[in-house]
């Protein structure tokens, strides 16, 4: 039985002794205690420095608070309340009393770090600074009662910087944005190293020496890994940790596997009550050697194993058929996973009734997107065929009268696609106006993570680990197998009436409408997605499909609010990737213009150029903002340097380019 503590026992009117409450209803565990490491909050957000309080079996106002991490709240050193932390990034913490959650209060307080999420709090607790944890809604209400003479820095990710700067524009708190995302996979050492590096620059300590080593802003659109359903998130993190691939690559692979499994059994309702497939298309950019195909194999492990079993049975049945003298039907191949293929045999397979549910995966997107299919005279019809297949699950082909047998139509077809390619291929595909115009590319969920090659170091301890023995991966594979069991018969149905249909709850619809409107507003002129309208217009539909996949994988009978939220975060990431990808190549072309002009100027005897004159001499640089955006990649890669002299900034060409003039 839970020991119930009524809220009135802790009310301010009775002047509760919060220290006594900690002693009576909580217990303290050291940093290395095994019981502490198994706590769900610690498992998710990391193991903070020092001893921690954990609540015993208690509840307040019928809310179960057992096993929660408990932090005392303080005012001027006195404990004036308690914060029972939730083990979720979405759920609210349970707070009694008042005050600030402060850790490391015994350290030098000339600098105080302010955290608005539990990842930052737990990881930065290992730093040698006092830390105040406050919700992002109340951060602008924070006062300096605890550290009057300190400089406060709010820690956030780069993509949150502008929002917090606007919110804190009249505050004493400065915003310190990190280039890396602060999430489960970021180690405390990495986070603290960047914080201290930026603080050194902020306080002008060794600024000149350190500035050249600052990382470029490569995490403007971090992958929303923490918004996934738990089982899928754990599988993604497992693949990331063992295979050492970027989070985005692992995520698209796991989403592809889950979608393939779901499309066989369920359809999605659109917002107007119509029915559509829950099939999805995924596009992943990755450098050569980024282990894209290995990640896909791990994510599809259970699916591949089942397919291998079926193919062995088929081979035996086929051999028996060939050896039989009796009049029996030839067995149908159970193959549903394809890689090295084109649109033509897939179309034939659907029309001939060879399959109804398939998946197409390739770690060489050039085979499909840049191959003969999309370079021939029938390119537009091939794109339109894939688009129609996505929309309605229908595939149709009309041949000439001399080849009537090649014509036909198939209904109730389902195909999910995961194409992976190198940047040069993706860039070529994105620049294809026909693909965007017909609407094929806007149907893809896209991610283009930065390669982690060069950081994938291993040690003896890692070599002793096996991904196939990790409980997170085993749990994910077991769920895949469970959903795939007894599924053979559903592959060759003549209609799609057997598929279930998952409706959205009213709360899910309300949340979907909010995200839909948020995206729609950004499609207007000067909006964030104004240059990719066709992509934004598709986002709402894809969001529902992905939410349906999540609901099915979690074995729910309806699409809930949490499914819409998870799907929305991933679709927003994809939209940002498409938007940033387009802008990135524009910026890079202008960077090339600056670099080439500087090389010519050096040849004419100019060793440095006044920064403010660049937009006067280079036609493509029409404003100071465009100039600064184009200069940043050159600065980050040390192609140019900025030198200040008499309050003016000059651009210097890296001496390595002197050799080519």
Describe this structure in words.
With 661 residues, the chain is α/β, with parallel strands linked by helices. The chain folds into four domains: 98 residues, no CATH class; 121 residues, 3-Layer(aba) Sandwich (Rossmann fold), CATH 3.40.50; 278 residues, no CATH class; 77 residues, Orthogonal Bundle (Arc Repressor Mutant, subunit A). Helices cover 41% and strands 17% of the residues. The chain has 23 helices and 26 strands. Strand 12, helix 5 and strand 13 form a beta-alpha-beta unit. Helix 8 crosses helix 9 and helix 11 packs across helix 18. The chain is globular, with a radius of gyration of 29 Å. The relative contact order is 0.07.
Keyword list:
26 strands; 661 residues; 17% strand; ten-stranded mixed β-sheet; globular; alpha/beta; disordered N terminus; Rossmann fold; single chain; five-stranded parallel β-sheet; 23 helices; 4 domains
Q: SSE layout and pairings?
A:
Layout (H helix, E strand, L loop, with lengths): L2 E2 L13 H8 E4 L4 H4 L2 H6 L6 E4 L2 E3 L2 E2 L4 E7 L2 E7 L9 E4 L2 E4 L7 E5 L2 H7 L6 E3 L17 E7 L3 H7 L5 E6 L9 H15 L4 H5 L18 H14 L3 H17 L2 E4 L5 E3 L3 E5 L6 H8 L1 H23 L13 E2 L4 H9 L5 E6 L3 H4 L9 H14 L2 E3 L10 E3 L3 E8 L1 H8 L2 H6 L5 E4 L12 H4 L7 H14 L15 E3 L3 H16 L11 H21 L7 H43 L4 E3 L3 H4 L6 H13 L3 E6 L2 E6 L8
Parallel strand pairs: 1-4, 10-11, 10-12, 12-13, 14-23, 16-21, 16-22, 17-18, 18-21
Antiparallel strand pairs: 2-3, 3-6, 4-5, 6-7, 6-9, 7-8, 9-11, 14-15, 19-20, 24-26, 25-26
Helix pairs in contact: 4-6, 8-9, 8-10, 8-18, 9-10, 9-20, 11-18, 19-20, 19-21, 20-21, 21-23
């Amino acid at each position: 039985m839970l020991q119930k503590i009524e809220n009135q026992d802790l009310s301010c009117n009775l002047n509760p002794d919060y220290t006594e409450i900690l002693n009576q209803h909580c217990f303290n565990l050291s940093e290395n205690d095994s019981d502490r490491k198994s706590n769900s909050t610690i498992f998710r957000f990391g193991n903070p420095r020092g001893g921690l309080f954990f609540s015993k079996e208690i509840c307040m106002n019928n809310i179960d608070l057992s096993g929660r991490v408990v932090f005392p709240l303080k005012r001027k050193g006195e404990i004036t309340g308690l914060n029972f932390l939730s083990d979720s990034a979405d759920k609210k913490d349970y707070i009694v009393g008042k005050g600030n959650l402060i850790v490391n209060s015994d350290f030098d307080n000339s600098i105080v770090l302010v955290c608005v999420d539990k990842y930052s709090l737990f990881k930065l607790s290992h730093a040698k600074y006092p830390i105040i944890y406050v919700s992002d809604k109340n951060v602008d209400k924070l006062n300096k009662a605890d550290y009057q003479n300190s400089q406060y820095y709010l820690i956030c990710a780069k993509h949150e910087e502008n929002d917090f700067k606007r919110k804190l524009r009249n505050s004493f708190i400065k915003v310190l944005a990190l280039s890396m995302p602060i999430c489960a996979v970021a180690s405390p050492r990495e986070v603290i190293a960047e914080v201290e590096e930026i603080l050194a620059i902020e306080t002008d300590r060794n600024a000149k020496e350190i500035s050249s080593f600052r990382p470029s802003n490569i995490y403007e659109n971090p992958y929303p890994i923490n918004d996934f359903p738990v089982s899928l998130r754990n599988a993604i993190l497992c693949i990331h940790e063992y295979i050492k691939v970027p989070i985005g690559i692992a995520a698209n692979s796991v989403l592809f596997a889950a979608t393939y499994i779901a499309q066989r059994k369920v359809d999605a309702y659109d917002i107007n009550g119509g029915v559509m497939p829950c099939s999805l298309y995924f596009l992943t950019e990755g450098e050569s050697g980024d282990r894209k195909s290995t990640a896909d194999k791990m994510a599809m492990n259970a699916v591949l194993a089942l397919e291998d079993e079926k193919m062995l049975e088929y081979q035996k049945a086929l051999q028996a058929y060939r050896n039989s003298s009796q009049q029996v039907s030839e067995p149908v191949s159970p193959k549903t996973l394809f890689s090295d293929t084109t649109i033509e045999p897939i179309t034939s397979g659907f029309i001939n009734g060879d399959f109804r549910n398939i998946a197409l995966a390739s770690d060489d997107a050039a085979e499909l997107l840049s191959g003969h299919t999309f370079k021939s005279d029938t390119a537009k019809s091939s794109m339109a065929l894939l688009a129609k297949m996505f929309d309605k699950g229908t595939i149709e082909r009309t041949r000439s009268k001399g080849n009537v047998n090649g014509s036909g139509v198939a209904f109730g077809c389902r195909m999910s696609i995961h194409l992976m390619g190198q940047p040069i291929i993706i860039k070529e595909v994105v620049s294809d106006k026909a693909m965007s115009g017909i609407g094929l590319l806007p149907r893809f969920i896209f991610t283009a993570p930065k390669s982690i090659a060069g950081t994938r170091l291993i040690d003896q301890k890692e070599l002793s680990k096996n991904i196939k023995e990790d409980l997170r991966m085993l749990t994910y594979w077991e769920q895949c197998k469970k959903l795939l069991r007894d599924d053979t018969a559903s592959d060759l149905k003549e209609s799609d009436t057997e598929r279930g249909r998952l409706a959205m709850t009213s709360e899910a619809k309300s949340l979907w409408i909010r995200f839909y409107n948020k995206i729609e507003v950004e499609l207007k002129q000067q909006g964030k997605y104004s240059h990719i309208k066709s992509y934004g217009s598709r986002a709402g539909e894809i969001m529902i499909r992905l939410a349906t996949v999540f609901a099915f994988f979690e074995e729910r009978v309806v699409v809930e609010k949490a499914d819409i939220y998870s799907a929305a975060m991933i679709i927003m990431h994809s939209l940002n990737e498409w938007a940033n990808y387009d802008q990135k190549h524009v910026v890079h072309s202008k960077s090339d213009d600056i670099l080439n002009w500087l090389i010519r100027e050096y040849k004419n005897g100019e060793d440095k150029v006044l920064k403010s004159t660049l937009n006067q001499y280079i036609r493509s640089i029409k404003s100071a903002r465009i100039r600064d955006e184009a200069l940043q990649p050159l600065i980050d890669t040390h192609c140019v340097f900025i030198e200040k002299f008499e309050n003016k900034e000059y651009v210097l060409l890296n001496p390595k380019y002197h050799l080519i003039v």
